[in-house]
């Protein structure tokens, strides 16, 4: 039978495999959900998945292949920024819509009007972090521990941008690389800085050891993380040290939204693994694509693009719409670790603060 | 067709990269684990220049030139340290390169450089351009191998001290090898940058250097056509092996390992054996 | 105070590096192989210890079994991969080793999953206050284990005459045999000890981070190479000192050079500087 | 021709050569003998620049070599055959010699890229192999060849440089008596044709038979130099070199 | 003491020694002579276990040693000073000697070393020097000394006089006669034919991997035809 195809490039092998797997699982769950409720346009939805090892070198031919050989209607990137940015140009020039699930490089959507992103650009979330620290928590002295890649850098750029507005002094910033797990020197220095809040960017595998080591050294300052922390594994790694860590993210575990709670429940059932933000992003991206195709009423790529641009969808990561650049507009969820679980802490919905870039 | 074009372009770029390393490793016997740095130098130079509005046709030689200069500087290191020490030093060069690029805002830092201008040849035109450069480099390599320079390289690769004792200025030859090799590495970097049109530090790291080296070794160090074939195959290996997706890297790693085990002299060794066997059979038959 | 803290952190890191690198030095020293896959054994050590600890609840027992197990696997790797290509030019073994390392990481990912694993109940996590410096028990144990294993190795090589057999085997295995050295045994033993030490390091790192990932060996794979080269290739004492030097340099460098160079580049910048002055490392081993 | 002025070589605490001065004339055939470890090879290495003397200078045809790198010294006119053979194992015996014979072509690396033909060099190399009686192994790789052949290959390579002076370090070792005699005759013949030679050798019989001058080094110092017969008759030479029990020439 | 029975050996597919037989009596000196490439070194290395024996057998002290491992041979009393010396070049003179006595209890090292130093005082002076930096002759002394450290019953020496000055050659031959008087059996390869004829009890002449003459040295000395034949031999 004929199907509607969505193409996915995702790192399934190599260093980025764990994120790739989560994102792909999220996407698979979305397909499962859609198909079990009748598919779209009366056809089944099908994913065409290729492993890109998070490498731009591979995502380029993959994009070409998805467009030309597999004739997908929409492309979804479940990969990192480099691979996504390189592929975005291909999709744009072929006139095929492309949705980045969680890659945060600002230039991705600048490839053109066929490229969208369902996750926050780093700056937006960074600004939310600043509001959280200064406005909600009323902290004054911040230390930044920055993951030295596009993710960490853009988050921190946003944080810095708004810090002053909320009365925060940035005492110091310490960069570290994504491969670091030992933060002894940084921790020693942070201790001497005596901050009252620490804005730490990173992924769960760097954040877990980092938080443990900060607490071991007797540092009591509040730790603010972001969506990179957002997985149960983070809590497992850091154990008791993770209690009280606050993060900005897209996924509200205590959400009253049916879409979100269904996602969390069904994900765990289907994959026997706790869900995380990356999985929710993959899920959301596919849902957005599917809804747009349904809405367009056919698989004409140009029509689908227009329909994506006009999206207004309740997804697992909140209510989604796009601005003229293709950047997502949605609220930022604030979660806190309590008794070994992420719990609702606050929602930031300040439209002006969260406005994504428009050019 | 576009898909095939993009694969062939990638292939051509990889062949240029591998042949350039072959000049250093295969011809002159100087092991280098840092080729990514020179490819990266070419890519960054051209990306910056064309980004600033300068023509691709100027950026291309500029990228080669700068990579070659950097290569000669590293070549000076090879005059001082040898063998495994050199291997690790060149590996250090790649990490240093990355470390510096990462922290330099004008190089895009961690974010890399996006929207690198199109050279304006069209996809097909670009592919033809890349493939003809690859062919030219292969021919040049073949020529070089048979020239007196190649002969002197052989001697240096074999035994540097003795080469000195028969009057060969191995320091100069080594610098030339590094200069030439890295200059062509720069070429492959330039071509890469304008093909993918996005570059970031990670694309030119240690893993990339090792990938190029494994093309050379699997092809058979020093064998021009062997290296060419190996680069062609390995560069699109991930695409070919999409169907075994989850096991792709496992197969790749296993393949590197088994080829080394069963044919340490690489493809050219395998081919050599097949031909000599075939040749023998023929003479058997006739005799 | 900050100075002292940084120094101590540098020593801890250096101690862990030493454990990994000394195993690698042994292998390099004997076979002249840049054994990148050593880091794969380090990762395996972490996984085994983690699984065993979660299963038995006994960390000392688990780490011992893991070290022995990984030591044996090291011997198998030697037998299957390296022995057949010993006579070939060095980069043959290097590429084989890299291939093996890639394959190992992928096998771990396929078997243990791509996500990091953690201890169900991580032992030795209590914090001790030593004169104003806070350290966890596991960090102290890591240092002690490094010190213990390395001194045991030094004594063993000195008093068992295995050291001299080792060195003789390096220069001329054939002649070493002719004077009664069982070269095969020496090589197996060497791989056993080297791999077991890698497993010890992997286990301690697993515990300190409470995290084991398929890719946890990627940094040690090349940093350990930098360390053994800095130490003079094949020189145990030199490796130990180089490991500590790099640990401390990184500790201070992260703070004072962090905005110019990242951590990995610091180690290599140091390495290149030293090699330009002393082309055969801090302590020539050959 | 070749002049060595007051050379002293130190290895850590060991003084390998003490203030040695030596001089060969054009067309000379000088034998250099001395006990094992006397410093003969070290002297040769000081001349070619592979060891740096603590003091002293080396001149070749009145040109000071002190600040030249090894390959430049060789190019100034030294042909060297080493005590421990070092053939290029990846090349055939013939190619070993061809490479060296092309010294003019490899002189300037930049120009070497533009020349390809090896015809002349091959002919010349083959002549040399014939001269040394190893032409029948021309096409073989040196890896497993007996030492006797490799020694002669070293000599052939040295000759391929058309050197002003030929430095030979124990070229006869590893050859049997017949072969040694043959090679010695060929050397004498070369010398007769005008080749200056400095020969280090333990095979006294041959040395005395073919050399025109004889120098003796003991313990890093030159103890005697002159006509072979008269030198060999000096008691201190006999004592150092032959041991007390020898009272007559061999 | 040592017998070869129709031994053939070689490398890969190449056979270099074809059906060689000889017997060496205990306490005698046996010399192998022949032109370059005749296969002398190959024979020796086959006895020491380094070259693959393809057919025939080797007996030592009435024990079949054709297939025993290399490292066992030194324990039953065979020590080797090979062609090219093959010293442990990165190790000091002292360590090289220590390796010589590796198969013996540790305390024998000192007493044996004293004996070697007495024979070659030069080595004592160079005790802490790296073997690779010794002069050619010193290296040869070390190679012989190292073999002696193993207290062999059968001492195998390839190219004894290579690169040695006459005085040391005499010294070495003196040492060999001395060892012979102590009951050590010696197998020599020697290019210097006259020397070999002088000292050996028995000789065996090899040519292209075949035994062309075998017998007592006394007979050989009396056989001018043989001497001229051998001296007249050219290689190949
Ligand atoms: N790198 C070095 N370090 C220390 N000592 C050295 C070094 N090289 C040579 N020697 C010593 O210098 C002395 C002279 O050595 P050289 O090789 O010149 O002797 P030779 O006269 O050539 O002897 P032979 O006839 O045995 O070859 C020897 O005692 C040797 O041990
Ligand atoms: N490792 C090897 N592989 C293949 N062939 C070899 C090897 N070693 C020696 N040969 C060949 O075996 C033959 C016998 O060599 P061998 O070294 O035994 O001669 P030899 O009598 O000791 O000569 P010499 O007097 O020069 O030492 C030669 O033709 C040689 O080329
Ligand atoms: Mg000498
Ligand atoms: Mg021999």
From TrEMBL, chain B:
* Major subcellular location class: membrane
Q: Which UniProt keywords apply?
A: Cell membrane, Membrane, Transmembrane, Transmembrane helix
InterPro entries to which the protein is assigned, alphabetical: ABC_transp_permease, LivM-like
Entry superkingdom: Bacteria
List residues traversing the bilayer. Answer: 7-34, 54-78, 85-104, 124-144, 175-193, 213-237, 249-271
Q: Which Pfam families does this entry report, sorted A to Z? A: BPD_transp_2
Question: Single GO cellular component annotation?
Answer: plasma membrane
The subcellular localization recorded is: Cell membrane
How does the protein associate with the membrane? Multi-pass membrane protein
Q: Mention one GO molecular function.
A: branched-chain amino acid transmembrane transporter activity
What's the protein name? Branched-chain amino acid ABC transporter permease
TrEMBL record, chain C:
| Membrane topology recorded in Swiss-Prot or TrEMBL | Multi-pass membrane protein
Q: Which residues form a coiled coil?
A: none
Main localization (coarse) = membrane
Q: Which UniProt keywords apply?
A: Amino-acid transport, Cell membrane, Membrane, Transmembrane, Transmembrane helix, Transport
Residue ranges annotated as transmembrane are: 6-26, 33-53, 59-78, 90-111, 140-157, 188-212, 224-246, 266-285
Question: Pfam families per the record?
Answer: BPD_transp_2 (PF02653)
Cellular component GO terms, alphabetical: plasma membrane
GO terms classed as biological process: amino acid transport
Q: Output the CDD domains linked to this UniProt entry.
A: TM_PBP1_LivH_like (cd06582)
A GO term for molecular function: transmembrane transporter activity
Q: Where in the cell is it found?
A: Cell membrane
Entry's family note: Belongs to the binding-protein-dependent transport system permease family. LivHM subfamily.
The name this protein goes by in its record: Branched-chain amino acid ABC transporter permease
Record organism: Desulfomarina profundi
TrEMBL record, chain D:
Q: What SMART domains does this protein map onto?
A: AAA
Which source organism does the UniProt entry give?
Answer: Desulfomarina profundi
Superkingdom of source: Bacteria
GO annotations of cellular component type = plasma membrane
Domain spans labelled ABC transporter: 2-244
- Record's keyword terms, sorted: ATP-binding, Nucleotide-binding, Transport
Biological processes per GO annotation: D-alanine transmembrane transport; L-alanine transport; L-isoleucine import across plasma membrane; L-valine import across plasma membrane
Checking InterPro entries in the record gives: AAA+_ATPase, ABC_AA/LPS_Transport, ABC_transporter-like_ATP-bd, BCA_ABC_TP_C
Recite the lineage of the species: Bacteria, Pseudomonadati, Thermodesulfobacteriota, Desulfobulbia, Desulfobulbales
Q: What is this protein called?
A: ABC transporter ATP-binding protein
Q: Name one GO molecular function term.
A: L-isoleucine transmembrane transporter activity
From TrEMBL, chain E:
Q: Which GO terms describe its molecular function?
A: ATP binding; ATP hydrolysis activity; branched-chain amino acid transmembrane transporter activity
Q: Which UniProt keywords apply?
A: Amino-acid transport, ATP-binding, Nucleotide-binding, Transport
List the PROSITE patterns: ABC_TRANSPORTER_1
Supply the Pfam families for this chain.
Answer: ABC_tran (PF00005)
GO-annotated biological processes: L-amino acid transport
Annotated ranges, domain AAA+ ATPase: 26-210
| InterPro entries documented for this protein | AAA+_ATPase (IPR003593), ABC_transporter-like_ATP-bd (IPR003439), ABC_transporter-like_CS (IPR017871), BCAA_Transport_ATP-bd_LivF (IPR052156)
Q: Does the keyword Transport apply?
A: yes
Give the record's family classification.
Belongs to the ABC transporter superfamily.
| Protein name, per record | High-affinity branched-chain amino acid transport ATP-binding protein
Instruction: Say which species the protein is native to.
Output: Desulfomarina profundi
């Amino acid at each position: 039978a004929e199907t509607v195809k969505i193409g996915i490039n995702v790192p399934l092998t190599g260093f980025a495999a764990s994120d790739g797997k989560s994102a792909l699982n999220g996407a698979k769950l979305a397909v499962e959900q859609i198909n079990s409720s009748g598919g779209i346009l009366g056809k089944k939805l099908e994913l065409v998945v290729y492993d890109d090892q998070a490498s731009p070198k591979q995502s380029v031919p993959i994009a070409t292949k998805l467009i030309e050989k597999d004739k997908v209607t929409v492309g979804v990137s479940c990969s990192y920024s480099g691979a996504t940015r390189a592929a975005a140009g291909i999709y744009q020039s072929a006139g095929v819509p492309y949705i980045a699930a969680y890659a945060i490089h600002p230039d991705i959507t600048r490839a053109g009007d066929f490229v969208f992103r369902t996750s926050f650009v780093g700056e937006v979330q960074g600004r939310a972090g600043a509001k959280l620290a200064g406005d909600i928590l009323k902290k004054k002295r911040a230390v930044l521990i920055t993951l030295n890649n596009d993710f960490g850098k853009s988050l921190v750029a946003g944080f810095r941008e708004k810090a002053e507005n909320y009365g925060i002094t940035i005492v110091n910033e310490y960069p570290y690389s994504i491969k670091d797990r030992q933060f002894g020197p940084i921790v020693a220095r942070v201790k001497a800085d005596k901050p009252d809040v620490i804005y730490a960017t990173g992924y769960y595998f760097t954040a877990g050891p980092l938080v443990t080591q900060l607490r071991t050294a007797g540092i009591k300052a509040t730790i603010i993380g972001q969506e990179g922390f957002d997985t149960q594994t983070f809590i497992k790694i850091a154990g008791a040290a993770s209690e009280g860590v606050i993060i900005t993210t897209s996924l509200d575990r205590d959400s009253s939204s049916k879409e979100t709670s269904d996602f969390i429940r069904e994900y765990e059932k289907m994959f026997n693994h706790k869900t995380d933000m990356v999985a929710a992003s993959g899920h959301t991206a596919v849902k957005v694509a599917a809804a747009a195709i349904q809405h367009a009423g056919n698989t004409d790529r140009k029509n689908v693009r227009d329909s994506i641009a006009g999206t207004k969808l309740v997804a697992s990561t909140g209510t989604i719409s796009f601005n003229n650049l293709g950047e997502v507009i949605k609220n930022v969820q604030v979660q806190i670790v309590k008794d070994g679980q992420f719990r609702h802490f606050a929602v930031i919905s300040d439209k002006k603060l969260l406005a994504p870039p428009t050019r | 067709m576009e898909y095939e074009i993009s694969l062939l372009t990638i292939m051509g770029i990889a062949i240029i990269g591998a042949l350039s390393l072959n000049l250093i490793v295969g011809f002159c016997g100087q092991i280098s684990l840092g080729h990514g740095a020179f490819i990266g130098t070419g890519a960054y130079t051209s990306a910056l220049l064309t980004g600033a509005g300068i023509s691709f046709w100027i950026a291309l030689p500029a990228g080669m030139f700068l990579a070659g200069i950097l290569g000669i500087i590293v070549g000076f290191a090879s005059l001082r340290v040898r063998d495994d020490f050199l291997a690790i030093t060149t590996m250090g060069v790649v990490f240093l390169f990355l470390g510096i690029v990462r922290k330099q805002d004008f190089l895009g830092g961690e974010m890399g450089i996006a929207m690198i201008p199109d050279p304006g040849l069209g996809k097909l035109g670009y592919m033809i351009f890349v493939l003809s450069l690859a062919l030219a480099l292969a021919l040049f390599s073949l020529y070089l191998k048979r020239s007196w320079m190649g002969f002197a390289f052989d001697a240096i690769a074999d035994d540097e001290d003795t080469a000195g004792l028969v009057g060969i200025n191995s320091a100069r030859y080594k610098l030339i090898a590094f200069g030439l090799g890295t200059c062509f590495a720069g070429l492959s970097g330039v071509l890469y940058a304008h093909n993918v049109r996005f570059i970031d530090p990670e694309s030119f790291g240690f893993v990339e250097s090792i990938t190029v080296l494994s093309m050379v070794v699997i092809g058979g160090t020093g064998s021009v056509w062997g290296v060419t074939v190996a680069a062609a195959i390995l560069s699109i290996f991930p695409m070919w092996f999409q169907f075994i997706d989850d096991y792709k890297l496992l197969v790749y790693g296993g393949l590197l390992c088994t080829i080394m085990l069963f044919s340490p002299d690489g493809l050219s060794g395998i081919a050599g054996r097949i031909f000599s066997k075939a040749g023998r059979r023929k003479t058997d038959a006739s005799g | 105070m900050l100075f002292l803290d940084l120094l101590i952190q540098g020593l801890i890191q250096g101690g862990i590096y030493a454990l990994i690198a000394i195993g690698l030095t042994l292998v390099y020293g004997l076979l002249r192989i840049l054994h990148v896959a050593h880091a794969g054994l380090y990762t395996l050590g972490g996984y085994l210890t983690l699984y065993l600890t979660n299963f038995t609840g006994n960390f000392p027992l688990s780490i011992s079994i893991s070290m022995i197990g990984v030591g044996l696997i090291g011997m198998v790797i030697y037998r299957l991969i390296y022995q057949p290509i010993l006579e070939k030019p060095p980069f043959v073994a290097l590429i084989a080793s890299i291939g093996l390392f890639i394959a190992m990481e992928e096998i771990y990912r396929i078997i243990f999953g791509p996500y990091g694993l953690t201890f169900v109940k991580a032992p030795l996590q209590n914090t001790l206050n030593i004169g104003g410096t806070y350290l966890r028990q596991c960090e102290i144990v890591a240092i002690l284990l490094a010190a213990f294993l390395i001194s045991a190795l030094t004594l063993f090589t000195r008093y068992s005459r295995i050291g001299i057999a080792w060195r003789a085997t390096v220069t001329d295995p054939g002649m070493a045999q002719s004077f009664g050295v069982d070269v095969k045994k020496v090589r197996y033993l060497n791989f056993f000890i080297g791999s077991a030490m890698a497993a010890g390091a992997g286990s301690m790192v697993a515990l300190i981070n409470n995290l084991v990932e398929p890719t946890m060996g990627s940094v040690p794979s090349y940093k350990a190479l930098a360390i053994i080269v800095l130490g003079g290739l094949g020189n145990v004492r030199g490796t130990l000192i180089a490991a500590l030097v790099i640990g401390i340099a990184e500790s201070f460098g992260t703070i004072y050079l962090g905005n110019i160079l990242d951590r990995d580049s610091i180690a290599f910048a140091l390495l290149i500087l030293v090699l330009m002055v002393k082309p055969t490392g801090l302590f020539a081993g050959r | 021709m070749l002049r060595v002025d007051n050379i002293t070589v130190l290895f850590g605490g060991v003084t390998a050569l003490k203030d040695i001065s030596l001089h060969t004339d054009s067309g000379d055939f000088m034998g250099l003998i001395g006990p094992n470890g006397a410093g003969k090879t070290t002297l040769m290495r000081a001349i070619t620049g592979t060891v740096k003397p603590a003091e002293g200078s080396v001149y070749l045809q009145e040109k000071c070599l002190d600040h030249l790198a090894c390959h430049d010294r060789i190019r100034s006119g030294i042909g060297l055959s080493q005590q421990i053979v070092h053939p290029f194992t990846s090349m055939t015996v013939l190619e070993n010699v061809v490479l060296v014979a092309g010294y003019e072509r490899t002189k300037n690396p930049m120009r070497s890229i533009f020349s390809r033909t090896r015809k002349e060099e091959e002919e010349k190399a083959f002549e040399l192999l014939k001269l040394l009686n190893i032409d029948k192994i021309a096409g073989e790789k040196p890896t497993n060849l007996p030492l006797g052949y490799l020694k002669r290959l070293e000599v052939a390579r040295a000759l391929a440089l058309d050197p002003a002076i030929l430095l030979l370090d124990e070229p006869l070792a590893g050859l049997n008596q017949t072969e040694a005699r043959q090679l010695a005759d060929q050397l004498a013949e070369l010398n007769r044709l005008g080749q200056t030679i400095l020969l280090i050798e333990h095979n006294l019989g041959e040395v005395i038979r073919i050399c025109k001058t004889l120098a003796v080094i003991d313990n890093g110092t030159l103890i005697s130099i002159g006509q072979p017969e008269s030198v060999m008759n000096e008691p201190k030479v006999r004592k150092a070199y032959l041991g007390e029990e020898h009272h007559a020439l061999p | 003491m040592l017998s070869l029975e129709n031994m053939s050996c070689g490398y890969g597919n190449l056979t270099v020694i074809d059906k060689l037989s000889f017997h060496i009596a205990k306490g005698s000196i046996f010399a192998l002579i022949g032109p370059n490439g005749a296969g002398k070194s190959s024979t020796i290395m086959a006895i020491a276990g380094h070259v693959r024996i393809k057919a025939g057998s080797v007996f030592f002290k009435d024990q079949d040693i054709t297939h025993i491992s290399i490292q066992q041979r030194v324990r039953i009393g065979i020590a080797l000073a090979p062609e090219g010396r093959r010293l442990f070049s990165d190790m000091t003179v002292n360590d090289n000697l220590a390796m010589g006595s590796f198969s013996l209890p540790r305390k024998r090292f000192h007493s044996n070393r004293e004996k070697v130093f007495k024979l070659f005082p030069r080595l004592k002076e160079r005790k802490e020097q790296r073997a690779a930096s010794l002069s050619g002759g010193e290296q040869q002394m070390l190679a012989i000394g190292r073999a002696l450290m193993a207290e062999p019953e059968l001492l195998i020496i390839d190219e004894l006089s290579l690169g040695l000055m006459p005085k040391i050659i005499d010294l070495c031959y003196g040492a060999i006669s001395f060892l012979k008087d102590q009951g050590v059996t010696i197998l020599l390869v020697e290019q210097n034919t006259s020397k070999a004829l002088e000292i050996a009890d028995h000789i065996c002449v090899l040519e292209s991997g075949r035994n062309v003459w075998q017998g007592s040295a006394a007979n050989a000395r009396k056989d001018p035809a043989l001497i001229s034949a051998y001296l007249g031999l050219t290689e190949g």
